[in-house]
């Protein structure tokens, strides 16, 4: 659950919510049907979205091993799932707490920044074709956070010249 909402509920144990607190809660509740729809669309189209991305990535990196490309694609698939859940919860911290910690270790080990950078670009393009602009805007904060954080981690692990 969104940290602000959690705080609201915790603080309201001994009192009623203040008008501004009710506004925050109302905004989240009002956006929930749209968030649910985006989540469902991503879930239902995941295979098509990722297959298109995988096909294009393979064409861009014909010299890379199948295992390397598959690892990056699987990581991106997991990233998309976690970002969709963060969007549903309206909680970017979900990405930081649940995804970046363990995925960062995997990514740093394999040093796939050029592949991952291209993959994220392809994924973003495919999402833009699969979702409306409004739906993308709901998903974007979590997606940008995950992608930029993971690419920074990869870049930090490479030796400086």
UniProtKB/TrEMBL annotation:
Pfam families: Phycobilisome
Keywords assigned by UniProt, alphabetized: Bile pigment, Chromophore
Presence of keyword Protein biosynthesis: no
InterPro entries tied to this protein: Globin-like_sf, Phycobilisome_asu/bsu, Phycobilisome_asu/bsu_sf
Family assignment from sequence similarity: Belongs to the phycobiliprotein family.
Name of the protein in question: Phycobilisome protein
Source organism per UniProt: Geitlerinema calcuttense NRMC-F 0142
């Amino acid at each position: 659950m969104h940290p602000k909402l959690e705080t609201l509920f915790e603080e309201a144990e001994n009192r009623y919510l203040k008008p501004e607190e009710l506004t925050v809660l109302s905004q989240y509740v009002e956006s929930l049907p749209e968030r649910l729809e985006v989540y469902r669309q991503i879930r239902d189209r995941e295979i098509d979205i990722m297959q298109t991305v995988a096909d294009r990535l393979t064409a861009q990196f014909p010299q890379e091993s199948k295992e390397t490309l598959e690892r990056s694609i699987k990581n991106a698939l997991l990233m998309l799932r976690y970002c969709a859940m963060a969007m549903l919860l309206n909680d970017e911290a979900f990405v930081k707490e649940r995804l970046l910690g363990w995925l960062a270790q995997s990514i740093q080990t394999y040093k796939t920044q050029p592949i991952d950078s291209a993959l994220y670009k392809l994924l973003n393009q495919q999402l833009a074709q699969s979702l409306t602009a409004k739906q993308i805007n709901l998903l974007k904060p979590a997606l940008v956070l995950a992608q930029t954080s993971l690419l920074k981690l990869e870049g930090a692990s490479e030796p400086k010249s």
